[in-house]
Each structure stands twice: as C-alpha cells, then as structure tokens.
Amino acid sequence: MEKDILVRLEEAGRLSKGQRRIADYIRNNYDKAAFMTAGKLGQTVGVSESTVVRFASDLGYDGYPGMRKAIQEMIRSRLTSLQRIEVSKELLDEGNLPGSVLAADMGKLEATLRDFDREQFNTAVEAIANANHIFIVGMRSSTCLASFLGFYLNLLLENVRIIQDTSQSEVYEQIMRIKPNDVFIGISYPRYSSRTVKAMSYARSCGATTVGITDGETSPLVGLADVLLYARSGMMSFLDSLVAPLSLINALIVSIGLRNREHVSDTFKQLETIWVDYDVYERMGG
Hints:
two-stranded antiparallel sheet
C-alpha cells in the first residue's frame, strides 16, 4: 500500500528550517494545505515557492501537484462530515452547483477508465462466475452499491448472499461458513467501514477468494483483496460521489451475464413470465 503523506513526513530524514515549517503546517492543517497552490503554501509558512516544490520532490512525489493530490486523497478518509463541508467550499462552484457536481462526476469516470486494469477485472469476473457461493459486503454509504450488485447477481447466479449491515457479531455469523471455493466481494469507500475491512480479513483467513472494489492504493482493502478493482470517488461536501463505482459494477454485472448468454436469456424469459403473471411492473399504454 502506498504510504500517505503523514507517514512520509515521519520517515523523512533531516529537514531544513524551511522544510520543517512546511511539514508542521501540513501535519496541523492538512485540510487547508490540500487545496493551496505551492505559492500560497509557501507564503503561508514563510518560505519560497521553489522551497515548497523541492520539498515535495524530496518526499518522493512527482512535483508539487503530486504531493497536493496525495494530501487530498488522505483527507477524504480522515475528515469529519463538518470538516468536509468546510473543505468543499474550495471544490465546488456554488454559483453553478449542479454543473460543478456533474463535471466532477464525469472527471471521476474518465480517471477510472484511464487507470482501468483489464487483467484484474477479467480475473474478478472469472472468480465470481465460477464461485460456489458469493458473499457481498458493503457498509455505510457503500450499502447501496452492494445491494445493486447483489440484486443483479442473484438474477444471474445461484448462492449469492448480501451481508446485512447489522451488529459486528452478526456480520461474522453471516459469513462463518465461507470456504476456499467461495468469493467474498468487499466494497468500501471513504470514510472506510472497519466492519468491511475486518470481514474481508476473516474471509481471506478462511481461504476464500477476496475481491475488493475501492478507490485506490491507500484503501485498507489493499493487502487483503486477492483481486482489486479501482473506481474513483470524489468528495462532494459531506458525501462522496459513487458514480464511477456504480459504473464499474455495471460493467462487472454485464460481463458476468455475457459469459453465458443462453442461460441468461432463459432466466429472463422465465422472469418476464413471472413479472407479467404477478403484475410486478405497471403496464404502460393501452
């Protein structure tokens, strides 16, 4: 897992007086530093812009933009909801809020597609399609993603189980029979649910194949998941955008379905008959 910037600061060697000022400011004000230019950060702590840029490079980042991005990624899992509201004022154009949010979502979709790992994706599809049992866990804000994935996988496959977000002991009771030929899918986005992380750790200890759907290499699912699927999320005030994760899950469902087109066609023929016979959907038109 990639080290976050606070760890890098702790492990940094001897720092000059100016570099110590930068490091101290980031430690104590990372929510503000995350959205400062190099010039603004230098002005705030009393050093030159070039000192800030060199400091970022000395920490191992690809220039100042790389360090600032690392701070932004870090704060998403550390800030309280109230702090997120304050920080979001720097991110969103309140004069055109819908356009600002939609544009940010499109940016996350583009970034997800750009960094897409087809090999990991194909490995996940094969593992899920061939599993004896599939357990899906997504807590807190990721519950909606787990429910969506589970709803469609239940139509395509047998023995799919969505683990409910109840007490921690009941989570383990729901996955206690997981075995090596099973697949555990964990979905977690900032602020990461400790229950999801611990449940994935338990599933892995039981020998199950673990698939993680998360936002990046700083996620606590890294190191626990045998297969990792990344989809970017973005901080939108007190909430995170889950547009890109949902799109990735769409691709996962479609890919699993297309592995056995004939079976899927037969399944939906049967379902259409049931839906009509029992008035599941409103009948439109004449």
